[in-house]
């Protein structure tokens, strides 16, 4: 693939193959892809993932699995979470965009230590405008995971003018409180670094605005609210 300056990408049987040994992590491939998709993927077994983790075992008490949406790989995830827990006494946090119906994955939910969930916008139309997808499943997961005590953290990235952040913070807080959840609510100020080109010119929120949103959540009764 000539776009890669290090010749770390090639094509085999119609698929792009990534050579991690040649890759210099320059990022050219991702910036050239119209979908900002990364070709830097490898197929790993559960055992191979645990072998990568093994040298760090003396220093960690758990792992976090992220994505994309890692719930799309539910059988693999379930096996990984089980072996991390039973074989190495490691807890697993699952970082999700909420698009997977976790109420249908009881074994994974049971084995995981907790979930970190993005709630991008409470309002359905605003969420669809931001992401191109409905937030119905996100809010169902918020309610489900909060009520069964598996919600570790909720995150909302605040981008001024893109959605009603006050409504989102208020309604997420209300749902957490009604579920008696002790989950942390992380209110994150948008930063343009590392985002797709079409989002790079979006405005950053003032710290005082983020603090005001956090104050709203705290005034409703949430105890663990952080601004990042
Ligand atoms: S980051 Fe992408 S373009 Fe850069 S060397 Fe690695 S594979 Fe090639």
Description:
- Its cofactor is [4Fe-4S] cluster.
- Keywords: 4Fe-4S, Iron, Iron-sulfur, Metal-binding, S-adenosyl-L-methionine.
- InterPro entries: 4Fe4S_Fe-S-bd (IPR017896), 4Fe4S_Fe_S_CS (IPR017900), Organic_radical-activating (IPR034457), rSAM (IPR007197), rSAM_sf (IPR058240).
- The chain is α/β, with parallel strands linked by helices.
- It has two domains: 1-42, no CATH class; 44-227, Aldolase class I (TIM Barrel), CATH 3.20.20.70.
- The protein is built from eight helices and eight strands; from the N terminus they run E-E-H-H-E-H-E-H-E-H-H-E-H-E-H-E.
- It has helices at 28-32, 46-53, 74-88, 106-111, 124-131, 136-147, 165-178, 207-220, and strands at 9-12, 15-18, 62-65, 91-96, 114-118, 151-158, 184-189, 225-227.
- It has a six-stranded parallel β-sheet, covered by helices on one side. A two-stranded antiparallel ribbon has the order 1-2.
- Helix 4 links the parallel strand 4 and strand 5.
- The model has no long low-confidence stretch (mean pLDDT 94).
- Bound molecules: iron/sulfur cluster.
- Residues 4, 6, 8-9, 18, 23-29, 40 line the site of iron/sulfur cluster.
